[in-house]
Amino acid sequence: MKKTDKSFNYWQWRVILCSMISYAMFYFVRKNFSFAMPALSEEYGITNTSFGIILSLVGIIYGISKLINGMIADRANARWHLVIGLSACTVINFIFGWSDKISTMITGQEGGEDFIGMMVTVMAVLLIINNIFQGCGAGPCQRLIVHWVQPKKLSTMTSIWNTSHSIGAGIVSVLCGYIIGTYGQWQLCFWIPATISAIGVFFTIITLCDTPSSVGLPELEGTKTEIDDDNSSEAFRGFVKKMVFKNPIIWAVASISLMVYIVRFAVLDWGPTFLMNRANPLSPEMAGWTIAIFEMAGCAGMVIAGWASDRFFDGKAQRVCLIELVIVAILLLVLQFLPEDSSPILLLVLLALAGFFMYGPQTLVGVVAFKHATKKASATAIGFIGLTSYASVLFTGVGLGWYSDHFGWDTLFLLMAGVSVIGSIIAAFLWNLKDDAYIHEK
Q: In terms of pLDDT, which residue wins out, 396 or 263?
């Protein structure tokens, strides 16, 4: 092996692993709010509808931020883009732990309708700001992946990288579950994860680089595009418009991602509340472990789905998406008709299997997008798909919040099974899709 190849392999794995850790830190200061919600509801009487409105609002903001930051990421230094975003989210989470004190300062009260109304407003504002900077996470990382990973390995390596959000969400679920179960203080759900993410900021500064050329290595072979020789802003805008916003493949992939995210967020955002309020309720600690195992099973599912796509389907990731979405629909139907007094272990196993098969499509839609937007517009494509995906919060946020307040959780899994079926139908139309949009020189 040539010295250049050995150096490239070292930096490739360093970039993949270190960007995984950096992105996982974003989840430490994002998904902690879900575990604070039951404690906030118990202490202040905040309704699920109010939480749902907040979740919907910040989800839309995050989706818009992903699109804007995706467009920025295609032209910016990935390391510093990540550092700016994670630093801002860390500071906001420290402030969030003082939202009750801020509400008291504004209203002069420590309870009552005015105090609660102001506290909901303060939380909403802080979460909006947090999610604006959360958009700085995915785009830079996706840019790093397509600049460091060869197209023939993209499904496998992207799936490995994509476990980062499940690892982050899983760890913070267990952490916050024990915080609530042991101390009962919702403030610690923000302060402790924020402290950990602050360490992550310095880790990112020290370990990450940008593209191969930033460390003196050649760019990847086989990833030439039609504007490689013209880096003007006008040429780039035209290329992005063609490869992303006017590309029907990207629109189809975004639609599949929307369906996947509806199911995913229904579990992540409302899972703790649902599990602690069922007929056979789980403790906060057990609910935390259940959501964490859902995420960890998703990690394994992502890696295996990516490997299977490259090994058995010649990189045609959309085929794996179809197969796994059908399996997810079946598992959700089983969960729907599971007796409420069933063993928590059986519930945990079924949710783990659902996570295993659901997270394959969640990561592989990005692989399809990468190959059809190319590395020049990959972050923009992921940003657009992210915006579409986070439109899901209109359903999973205020929609499910309102639904649960009025009708309970009885048909949750049936609704999610229907959503999975819609996603599988769209994926079926992409079965024979062309592999990629790169220019391969003779």
A: 263
